[in-house]
Amino acid sequence: MIRYAITSRALYLGSEQEKQAALLAEASRWIANRIDYIQIREKDLPAASLTAIARKLLQTINLTASPTRLLINSRPDIALATNAHGVHLSSSPDALTPAQVRDLYISANQPSPHITTSCHTLEDVQRARTENVDAILFAPVFEKPLPNQQILPGQGLDQLRAACLAAAPVPIYALGGVTLKNIPSCLEAGATGIAGIRLFHRSPEHLS
After folding, report:
1. Could you tell me which residue ranges the Thiamine phosphate synthase/TenI domain spans (predicted)?
2. pLDDT tens digits for 78-89?
3. What's the CATH number for 2-200?
């Protein structure tokens, strides 16, 4: 089972500096637990802060010989500058495409990066498959609470199963409302792995 952890410093208390320090500490524990992927998803941070976080985590990965791959959300420029393993792209109409990201790497004389993308519909999944991404995060599988106390409905296991069939041979990682209890159901539906923010918060040792 592939484990794909996504950062969110909003989970931590304190000043901005303290939140970034807590993020680094927790992500370092993920690396120690050999989590397969870490996506830095801190869209509001300035480039300098994102770059510093990425470099520190990559240093930890290299020093510990961990197999963890570090991906930067929507910022191939930072992924290139830090030698991160790749990028994660959204499915929004104005997002960079995998082809555009690969062209940036070609222009920089760098090998093609690892690319994952978010998908929310079967149409998204089919498009991502034709774009030859390395993996798809399909979401939300289960309902999840929103900051405004509303609930985002989940698409359900049947839709996850359909997404896995539509994506093949590209692997699908289930995202959205995934818990320790429903992980087996996601795998039975065809998911190759699981992804999450709160799922990995303070509990990577339970996801071996």
Report:
1. 17-198
2. 999 999 999 999
3. 3.20.20.70
